[in-house]
């Protein structure tokens, strides 16, 4: 077969259906809008995510007989209260601890250099003076770059105060109207789509269930893991508890990799504060128990309705979407991977093959 005939056969197989072409156009237009106008429309997309998250609280209230407007007002007031708490209590605390950690970095570096000296004295045949000097040089350069990044971040943040004010004002307003006028906004969006949208509807319902479960479950997981980490670190008297707890909480966004990355600062702070002692071991054991409970108990409960995705697919999705959209790409890596999986399975020809594979004909019984 020639390349032209192969390409023609492939196009006829997957794009002969009218709805498949419509879906392709919608997907391309949506991703193009996000890539080209994502920075400009960032407050809108942020509000859309938050409204999607809060709708999971509004809907149960309305099902219990609470008027829609009253449910929206109650949920919105709770959202604003949490937002103000984060803005005026938690964020200043985290920032102060981050500044304190940067200021204490030279002392930690000196302490680490002392550990290397002791290591070289105990194992002179394994750790040579040249290796030790190389390690010290690498650590010094990394610490210097970390300080420069922190200074650059602080200076950049001074210039972005207006953007922060815009977020704090526009996002809550957009969230309120998205919740209040949800039916009208959804109806208007549907009116822009073709009348024949069976495939779009099927994929939308699947993704609505998957993404809603993921976003709400991941938000709950971040809060639970971060809170338990804060209580655990505070119990052991570990410094920078709020900063480390926030880091551990957000580490659940990246499966497998996040837990390993968060272990490094936790172990470093515990090591510099307690030394190689029983307290240091207790902190690491408690942190390991927390991660084990999160991975084996909490996450399966929260994401019981989410499609299973292979770990390799998750890591590739995190690397790809995180490289494109940064934090939000990491946050939505798994939902986007789920979207791609749903598209593959729901595509007209692919759906027939999937049904044939998942539901093989029953064997005849004698």
UniProtKB/TrEMBL annotation:
Membrane topology classification: Multi-pass membrane protein
Transmembrane segments: 20-38, 44-62, 69-95, 161-179, 219-238, 244-268, 280-302, 314-344
InterPro entries: AI-2E-like
Keywords, ordered alphabetically: Cell membrane, Membrane, Transmembrane, Transmembrane helix, Transport
Short name of one Pfam family: AI-2E_transport
Compartments in which it is found: Cell membrane
Top-level division of the source organism's lineage: Bacteria
Family: Belongs to the autoinducer-2 exporter (AI-2E) (TC 2.A.86) family.
Protein name in UniProt: AI-2E family transporter
Organism in which the protein naturally occurs: Vreelandella lutescens
